[in-house]
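With this grant's support, we have settled on a layout for protein records. An illustrative entry appears below exactly as we store it:
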Amino acid sequence: MPTTNRIIDITDGPVFLRYENKLLVVERKSEDNDKEDVTIPVDDVGVLILSSPHVTMTQPAIAELSKAGVCVVFTDRNAMPASMCLPFGAHHQPATRFRQQADASKPVMKRLWQEIVRSKLEHQAAVLKCLHGTDYGLGEFPARVFSGDPDNVEAQGAKLYWSKLFGDVAFSRDRDAPGINALLNYGYTVLRAMAARAICSAGLHPGLGIHHHHRDNSFCLADDLMEPFRTYVDYAAYHWTGGAKRSMDVLSKEDKANIVRQLLTPIKIDGNREPLFYIIQRLAGSLVNVFGWEEEGLRLPSPCFQ
């Protein structure tokens, strides 16, 4: 299992992507019409984001990226993610694991969601404590989460969290809003792609969720597993915008690069520094073991913000 992966975002064009000798070749035309080719080992790529509308890719490039387990994200005309392409054969036992996943009982699913929500709230409390010196009482919320979160403590915690995170009680998380909300959207999309890639590598189906269920969502399980790690995007966004003090009318290339850079920075877990790619992959592996009755709980890390 690789310990490092690259997140490549193609923001400018025209660009031509092709595959050659285990390399992704990025052909770019400069202003003086000279070619500026860049080569990247396919095995080093974790997520490829195609943000420019002027990208052309060959079929062999798509096939080899898929074979390597790379998650390819396609954006719309507003440079916001529209779809993802994931490999079918990332694991040698997909049928067995799909069946175990589909057969998981409701009590198991409810217990797993309880673990995820508790971890998410713990991470949110840790972010507030790190940034503001207090968690505003959010640290007490995880103990209130029961199997399946019937009291929707997750939503209660989110209301408190977003009112305190940027020091603005009027701030609300709005997926359709510009500025810092757009920055968060981008970071969450990258995180979602990382989670989807880990799920497929573990031989699980990204559409069969633990809690998230929607007929139009092909990545329900990715939305479940990424929940505790959203806070790393929030933390990066806070620092990049100075606690939302810097206005952001348009999401720039530098804005995106900063979020990606933060998501690739190793996180200190249990005394060791590990990349988020590996932490999420380990989480997906523990879910496989839960479905196979080899483990009782998920391997969720303790929050660590400095």
About this structure: Residues 22 and 42 are 6 Å apart (CA to CA). The beta strands are 6-10, 15-20, 23-28, 38-41, 45-50, 55-57, 71-75, 81-85, 267-269, 272-274.
